[in-house]
Amino acid sequence: MKRRLFLKRRTKPGAAPGLLIVDPTAAATGITAIAYGPDRLEEIPACPSARVANLRGSRAVLWVDIAGLADHAAISEVATAFGVHPLAVEDAVNTHQRPKAESYDGHVFVVFRMLTAESGAEGEQVAMAVGRDFVLTFQERPGDCFEPVRERLRHGKGRVRQLGPDYLGYALIDAAVDSYFPYLETLGEEIEDLEDMVVKDPEPGHVERVHRVKRDLLSLRRAVWPMREMLNALLRDEHEEISATTRTYLRDAYDHAIQLMDMVETYREIATSLLDVYLSSQSARMNEIMKVLTIISTIFIPLGFIASLYGMNFDTSSPWNMPELAWRFGYPAVLGLMAAIAFGLLWSFFRRGWLGGDRD
């Protein structure tokens, strides 16, 4: 399946704000709810949209995860129950958004991208609304990188069950940021292998691999760069839903995003230089080939002249018309002369360093 580097907008120009457009390729919608507090946790794997609103208030924090965006009616019902702004819902459903952080009345809306085993470098959009007692997440399809967070919730590990929904939002963002590191490490190993192959034995197939790596890095840059800005906005702007304690942890996620950006830029520079190395290697190989062919041609120029001279077949009756044709050892003498000229030229080329010898 060919990836699209340039995405098409599904909404038409001039469409009403907050309009939800059905994507025919969207995955089926599934809703999972986790209500938890410091001492108890309730997890509902397949939660009907009509029941979600009744779960609010049953515990200190309610996390509703919507995976798959095909059922707009269910999504709108859940979003309305928690007072999510229609513009935020539109951004959650239309999965071409740039990572960002926006403040609405009663909640903070965040868009970012995560990597999964199925998504590759293109990633998957995640939209999240963080309120005073809830967290809503909207994913393109089932399967995510949030399972470690769920495990911490189930077993009460860490601070996630003792702190509020803003800390849960941080934990999900941090998991998404960390999902980029394994993929970048794999890309780094591939770049190192390509570097060795391009230098030692360049082949045309290496160019295609380098271009694929550069395209992956471009996709990563389009996700990581604005995600860093999103985290900076969460740290810089005042949001009632985000406490000072959580802001401290967000700084750590921001540092990780900066580290990701440095890795992406470094790998892009190396990948670009690999193309230059490949072209230089091919040019050097071509120069070596042309040098060998030039040497061979130079050797055969005097030999061809002698052979063509004796191929004119003049009558030997005149003493001026090739008298050596009548010599007893004329043919061996001419062959010896040609061999002497060839070896003399080779020795001259070697002395000048054209054949690997030391230059005088």
What structural class should be given to the helix and strand makeup? alpha+beta
Strand content: 5-15%
Any low-confidence stretches, pLDDT <50, length ≥5? none
Largest sheet: 7 strands, mixed
Tally of helical runs: 9
Mean pLDDT: 82
Domains counted in the coordinates: how many? Answer: 2
Describe this protein's structure:
By secondary structure, the protein is α+β, with helices and mostly antiparallel strands. The protein folds into 2 domains: 250 residues, 2-Layer Sandwich (Beta Polymerase, domain 2); 64 residues, Methane Monooxygenase Hydroxylase, Chain G, domain 1, CATH 1.20.58.340. The chain is 53% helix and 12% strand. The chain contains 9 helices and 7 strands, in the order E-E-H-E-H-H-E-E-E-E-H-H-H-H-H-H. A 7-stranded mixed β-sheet has the order 2-1-3-7-6-5-4, sandwiched between helices. A hairpin with a 4-residue loop joins strand 1 and strand 2. It is rod-shaped, with a radius of gyration of 36 Å. The two termini are 60 Å apart.
